[in-house]
Structure formats: structure tokens, C-alpha cells
Amino acid sequence: MTEWKVICRVEDIPILGSRRVTRAKGLDVAVFRNDSNEVFALLDRCPHKGGPLSQGIVFGTSVACPLHNWTIGLCTGQAAAPDEGCTPKFAVKVEDGQVSLNAAELASHAIGETRPIAGPKTRCAAS
Length: 127
Description:
This protein is mainly beta. The protein has one helix at residues 103-108, and strands spanning 4-9, 17-21, 29-33, 39-43, 57-59, 62-64, 71-73, 92-95, 98-102. It is built from one helix and nine strands, in the order βββββββββα.
């Protein structure tokens, strides 16, 4: 059975914005909310040069990286063509207005990821 960690309430995430979730190990996780009140979670790192996606602009089911305007899909973590790369995604559950992340993923998923120095990361790890 999956254990979920409550992060916040949906209304605590700005519409078309995000919140960062700090982890004991690894980079932060960015939790996004779009204008349809859908919630998504990605590692807070653009696959291009490591920009903080949590500071990007959310539109539809995408976020624009604040550094070089790469478009990253919130459902998949995949960069939109012609760009290539992927950032790890995290399972999200919204129940009774509470946003939760998979506790096991928070503790172990993408822990070894770092901010890239240069160049795209072209493959996503299987989720």
C-alpha cells in the first residue's frame, strides 16, 4: 500500500504557480497548479541547465523554465520539441483539497540528480 505525505492544501499553491518541497536528500520537488486546479510535481530542475522550474511560468499543462524559456510538460517532465531532455516527475494525489506526494518517491526518487553544468539530459529514468 502506498504511503502518502501531505504537503499542503490546493489553495496554498498559487494558480499558475508552484510551491517547493524540500527533501532530506536530493534536489527540491516543485508542486505546480494550473488554472484548471490540476496539480503536478516535478524535480525542481530544468533538464537544460538546471534552472529552477518552480520559478517558471505555468500555462496549460506546461511550465516555462525561467532561465532559457524551455517548455517542460507537467504530466511527463519532457521538454517540448525541438528541445530534448526530461526532468523526473513525482506521483501526486489530491483528496479533500489536500495535496500529497508519494512518501517513498520523496525519499528515494531522483536523489542522485544534480543541476547540470551544460547540455541537455536526454533520457528520463523509468518511473
